[in-house]
Specification:
With 153 residues, the chain is α+β, with helices and mostly antiparallel strands. It has four helices and eight strands. 40% of the residues lie in helices and 27% in strands.
Length: 153
Amino acid sequence: MNHVPAHLMNYFERAGTKRRYPAGATLYMKGDSAPTIYLIRKGRVRLFYIGNSGKEITFQIIGEGQLIGESAFLSHAARETTVLAVNDVEVISCKFAELIPYMQESGELNKLLLTLLTVNYGNLCSQLKRLTLYDSTQQVASYLLDQTQMPRE
């Protein structure tokens, strides 16, 4: 599960703040402090890494109903990627500490957040394998296969 079901969105709405970003705006940069998790309500964002040479590697394009910013689960963590609005985006930003009372209330919310961490770890492993072990044709085929196998809700 990589989408927040409609019946769990109210927890984020109660705990967080609605924000809007125009296309091209930066939600956060690699290295920023990470106290906030984001629920994408409208639009899409691009998660990417910028190397020392300036080369960008896109990790994911995230859309409506999905969560980003799982580094918020770790105290004193810094963002690992930069996130940019692909088009006009509306998010609900929640500080992890503000979600804790709702996590105590809902086992399903806990499961969702743990699943997010697991799915993102799996995506990272797939990306590393693609970049280090595959030639360009295999990289494209692997990426397309991963994208079509992702469960959509």
